[in-house]
Amino acid sequence: MASLSSTTIPSVTVPLAATPLFKRANPALSLDERTEITYQRARAISRAYKLTAQDVVFLRPKFWQLHTDQISPMDGAATTLITIQYNLAAGTLAPFAFKRADLQPLLKQIMDFDVSAQFLLSEVGHGLDSPNLETTATLLPSGEFDLNTPSPSAAKWMPPTAPKGGMPRVAIVIARLMVNGENRGVRPFVVALGDGQQMCKGITSKVLPTRAGAKPVDHALTYFDHVRLPAQALLGSLDMPQDLRQNFLSVIWRVGVGSLALSTLSITALKASVYVAGRYSIRRTVTGADGAPMPIIAFRTQQLPIFHTLAQVFVLEAYAKSAAEQFISPNIDPRVRHGIAATLKAVMLQHCQSSLYSLAERCGAQGLFEHNQIIESQLEMRGVAIAEGDVLALCIRLASELLIGRYEMPAPADPTSLLARHEAGLFDEARQVVANLGEGHRSEGFNRLILPLCQPLIEAIGHRMAYEAAVKAKVNPDLIALYVAGVVKYDASWYIEYLGLGRRAIHEMEDRALTVALPHLEDLLEETGARPYCIAPIVSDESWEGFVQSLPHFGGDASMQLIPGTMAQTAGSPYETPISRL
C-alpha cells in the first residue's frame, strides 16, 4: 500500500519526546510538582517550534503544524497552555504590537515563553452569551482604567491564572469599556496578573480542582477588585463602535481560529490511540480452537474500530489541510470562514469521541488506565469539544443561519456522491420543517423541531467535505471507502429509506474495504507517525515488562487462618458445619 501520510518531514519534537521531561511522571509527585512539569513541557515544545508573531497572525504553516504535532497527546495540559499563549494571547496582542512599539517587548516575551500569557473572556455566568459579560473597565479622569469584577457571576472562568510555573503571568482581559457611564462594547486590555510568586494587588485567583483524567493545570476563577490599569493597557479605540456585535466578533477573532486549530488535535489523539490499540491487539493473544495462541486482532470485532480509526486519521488529515486553506483565503465571506471552522470541529470531535471510546473498550481493562494514553486522550478531547466554542452551540448557530438563507457553505464538488446526497437530503427535510412552521428562527417551534437537527446537519456537511478533501489529496481509495462506510452507518436508516441501500449492502461495503486494508495493518500503524510519542506500556512485551518492574511491590511472611476450625482434625471426628446440621 502506498505511503498514506502527508507528513514526510519528522517533527521538531521527535527528539523532545525522548527526553526525561516527557517520560511518565511519577504519580507520587505532588499536584504542584506535576503542574510545574506541565509548564516546563509547554515551554520546551514552544521553544522547539520558535514561532514568530507573523506565523501566528498570518496563520502560516508552522502555526498549524504546532497544533497537529503528535507530542500533544503526551500532555494535553501543556497543549492547552501553548494554544492559549500563542493563538489567543499573542494572536490578539500582535496586530496592535505591530503598530505600537511599547507593546513589542511584551509580545517578544510571550513569543519566547518567558512569561505565561492567558486570555480571559468567558465568565461563570456568561459562556455562550459572552457578549453580555459583566467585567468592566471604566475610564477614569486621569486616562487610566478601573478593572472590576462587579458580581460573583462575572468571575473569569477557566484560564490558568495562579502563580504557577515559576514565571510571570500576564493576560489579555476582555471587559466592557465604560466611558462616562456609557457601555461602548468590549475591548481587550493588557493586565499583569502576577510575578510568578504571588498575584498582583487587587487580583484573586481561585484554583479549581483538576479535570478528570487530564494532566494538571491551574484552571481558575479570576476576580478583579478595582484594579488600576494604565491608559496603554487598552488595545483599540475609546470610540463607540458602529455595530456592537461586529465589534465583539472582531475583538475575539482568535477564538474562531482556535475552533479550527484546536479541533485538529483530534487527529493527534486518534493517531496515538489507534497506534496503542493496534499494537496491543497484535501482541495480545487468546487460545484458539486448536490450542495455539491467536492474536485478538484476528477477530473482526477488534479490526473494525481500529481500521475505522485509521481511515478517519488519513481522511481527517486531508480535511484539516483543506479547511485551513479555505479558512485563510482573503476572499472568503467571514461568516463562511466561521462555518468552515464549526463544521470541521463538529466532524473531528464526532469521530474522535466515538473512536476513542471504542478503542479503549477493545483494550479491555487496560483501556481504563491513563498510562495507556487512550482514555486520557478521550477526556482531554472532551475539553476541546467545549473550548473555543461548544460544538453543539456552533452547530445550532451555523445550521440556523444556513436554513434561513443568510449564506451558503461551499457546494459539493460531486453532488452525486453518497455523502453529498445525504447532506442535501437532510437539509431538504429540515427546510420543509421550517417552511411548515411558518415562524421565525427564535420561535418555540424552531426550538423544538429544528434545534435537535442542527448538529447532524453540520456533521453531514463535514462528512462530505472530509470525503472530498481525501479524494483530492489522493488518500488511498480503500481507506476512503472504509471512511464512507463508517459515515453511512452513523445514519443508516436514511440511506435505507431514501437511497434503497439495504442493511446487508452497507455491511458488505464496509467488509470489502476492510478486507482489502487488513494485510497492511502494520504499515498503516507506522504511517501514523505515532511511535516516537507512544509511552503506553501495552504496546510491546518489553515496555510491559519494564512497566511491571517499575510498580510498587509488596511481599512478606504473614500467615493467616481465614476459616476457623479448618486446621488438622482427629481421624473419625468430622468437623460439624451449619450445613451438616440441616
Automatic annotation (TrEMBL):
Please name the Gene3D superfamilies in this protein's record: Butyryl-CoA Dehydrogenase, subunit A, domain 2, Butyryl-CoA Dehydrogenase, subunit A, domain 3
GO CC terms in record: peroxisome
The record's Gene Ontology biological-process terms are: fatty acid beta-oxidation using acyl-CoA oxidase; lipid homeostasis
Q: Which residues form the Acyl-CoA oxidase C-alpha1 domain?
A: 265-402
Q: Which InterPro entries match?
A: ACOX_C_alpha1, Acyl-CoA_Oxase/DH_mid-dom_sf, Acyl-CoA_oxidase, AcylCo_DH-like_C, AcylCoA_DH/oxidase_NM_dom_sf
Determine the domain of life of the protein's source.
Eukaryota
Return one GO MF term. acyl-CoA oxidase activity
One Pfam entry for this protein is: ACOX_C_alpha1
**Entry protein name:** Acyl-CoA oxidase C-alpha1 domain-containing protein
Species, as recorded: Cristinia sonorae
